[in-house]
């Protein structure tokens, strides 16, 4: 990758308002291969933004994708490159799909501008470019972009929160229940096994009673961490409620699931849990019930029931064990 020409952000700011400020201080990529043009536009933009000038349009897509820009400004009247093609490339790549594009064109290039707007150019300016108009249009695009990014982040956070257990960071019961039947259907249709584990921390009530509820929470968090370390990426671990957890393991038969359960049981029993910011160490054990999908189309509730029954036996047989 070749070096970009970076221009410093200038100090002078003309009229100030909250709306305008929300579009200042952006990171702008100017794609322009004519020195007479970018030597004029670059410094104008640099009064409000950090500007990279890319005089080689064939590298612009790569740089736009890597550079995390708030705005890409494309000269449609490039010497050796089709500016419209560049715009459509920017629109088709995941990394640059949402980056606003401001096109700059000669007035007589009306048809190209229309094409540009059709393929997703957000706004345009005609030459000769007026500095205040350039800055105003750039600010507007950057402000919109920041606002939609902010909305997108909020939506993503809400989705995360809806499917995540806040204490442990594992999936919650709702998420698991909505995905469990899908996983079971997939396993059945592909003729693959599916294993399910129900885990319940032993005598957890007495941990709360003896060391306090906060210590109980510390144990739950640490337990979730050890669960995460013992499973694969395709396994689904959730906090089912209180001190109960469920792990679903696609493409796993009872034999392998038994080994995973045993490894997890040992990782809990062999290493005391630290609570109260490391001031206290507590011995913890877990009981585990295992089951597998037995036949095609079997209701997943039946698989859960068998795991629950196995867990009940694990408790009755003395806890700190995995039972199928
Ligand atoms: P067993 O070996 O039979 O499983 O005994 P147990 O004490 O673990 O079982 P029990 O179901 O009687 O107790 C579970 C306790 O978990 C009771 C409840 O107060 C506690 N608990 C549930 N959710 C939380 C939580 O989020 N944080 C803490 N600290 N405790 C919780
Ligand atoms: Mg319980
Ligand atoms: Mg119980
Ligand atoms: Mg328990």
UniProtKB/TrEMBL annotation:
Reaction it catalyzes: 2 GTP = 3',3'-c-di-GMP + 2 diphosphate
The UniProt record lists the EC number as 2.7.7.65
What range of the parent protein does this fragment cover? 131 to 454 of 473
Q: Which residues cross the membrane?
A: none
Superkingdom, natural source: Bacteria
Q: What is this protein called?
A: diguanylate cyclase
Enzyme class, one word?
Answer: transferase
Which UniProt key words apply to this protein?
Phosphoprotein
Q: Which residues form the GGDEF domain?
A: 192-324
Residues covered by the Response regulatory domain: 27-142
């Amino acid at each position: 990758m070749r070096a970009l020409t970076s221009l410093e952000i200038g100090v002078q700011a003309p009229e100030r308002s909250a709306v305008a400020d929300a579009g200042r201080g952006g990171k702008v990529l100017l794609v322009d291969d004519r020195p007479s043009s970018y030597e004029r536009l670059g410094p104008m933009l640099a009064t409000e933004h950090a500007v990279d000038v890319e005089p080689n349009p064939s590298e612009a897509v790569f740089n736009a994708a890597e550079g995390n820009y708030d705005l890409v400004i494309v000269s449609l009247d490039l010497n050796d490159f089709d500016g419209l093609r560049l715009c459509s490339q920017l629109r088709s790549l995941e990394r640059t799909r949402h980056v606003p594009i401001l096109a700059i064109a000669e007035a007589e290039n009306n048809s190209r501008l229309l094409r540009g707007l059709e393929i997703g150019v957000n706004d345009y300016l005609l030459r000769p470019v007026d500095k205040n108009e350039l800055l105003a249009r750039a600010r507007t695009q950057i402000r919109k972009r920041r606002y939609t990014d902010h909305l997108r982040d909020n939506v993503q956070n809400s989705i995360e929160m809806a499917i995540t257990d806040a204490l442990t960071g594992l999936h919650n019961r709702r998420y698991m229940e909505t995905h469990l039947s899908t996983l079971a259907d997939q396993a059945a249709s592909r003729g693959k096994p599916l294993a399910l584990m129900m885990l319940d921390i032993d005598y957890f009530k007495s941990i709360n009673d003896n060391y306090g509820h906060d210590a109980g929470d510390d144990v739950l968090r640490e337990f979730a961490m050890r669960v995460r370390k013992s499973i694969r990426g395709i396994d689904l671990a959730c906090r089912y409620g209180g001190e109960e957890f469920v792990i679903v393991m696609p493409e796993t038969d009872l034999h392998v699931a038994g080994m995973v359960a045993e490894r997890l049981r040992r990782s809990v029993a062999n290493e005391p849990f630290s609570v109260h910011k490391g001031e206290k160490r507590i011995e913890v054990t877990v009981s585990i019930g295992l089951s597998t999908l037995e036949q095609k189309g079997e209701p997943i509730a039946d698989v859960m029931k068998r795991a629950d029954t196995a867990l009940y036996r694990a408790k009755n047989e003395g806890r700190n064990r995995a039972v199928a």
